[in-house]
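Section: Multi-chain targets

For targets with more than one molecule, the full set of components is provided together so that the structure can be written out for the assembly as a whole rather than chain by chain. Components appear in the order listed by the source. The example entry contains two components.
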Amino acid sequence: MSDTVGIVIVSHSRDIAKGTADMVRQMVGSEVRVAFCGGNPDGGLGTSVPSIIDAINDAWSAKGVAILVDLGGAETNSEMAVEMLEPARRDHVVVCNAPIVEGAVMAATEAAGGSTLAQVKAVAEELSAD
Amino acid sequence: MLDKADGQIFSGNVRLIHAVGMHARPAVKLTKLAKKFQAQISVRVEGAAEWINAKSVAKIMAMRAAHGSTIEIKASGGSDAEAAVAALVKLIETDFPDEVS
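Its structure, encoded as tokens over all components, is:
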């Protein structure tokens, strides 16, 4: 189980983040660790750096973690969360430039086969390649 | 249904009985299974111009194979090419059952 890249889903909406994570678990299976976060601490729309760090820790794998985000702030906060990790772990976390739902499903499918973090990111980003 | 083509290429054909064709969930199952084999595996809707890498979930989803279409599978390289074709034929033939493992 720890042999597969972990997936983190970051949305402004907790419902979207949770729904995306549910789709990944149902479609791909339980061999890939999936964590999600969404919404601000007051229960409104938004993303928060501490929640993203918690999600990265939940999904942590020695092979690394791929993060899927929705709009602007989700991306910048995710990048900030990655920068705040210990240097040794920082290089094992990437933010994917991909649509959140499709990217998460494809990244998890690739991860389930035991692929590297770079391969997982490339597959998620195939969708935005053209 | 399997026939040995020239050299080390193995191939098979199977009819897609899944009610809505090759949509997201079957595509994920097919890709995950394909990735368990070392061999290079390609699929296409019968007669289509291009072969698609069976290990690429994005491409398999995008092939939009319809219900009732015939899927051609070919595999080469690795010692498991023949087994890969057999496994994928079985997966499609049995309408993508949930994994037993």
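Chain B has three helices and five strands.
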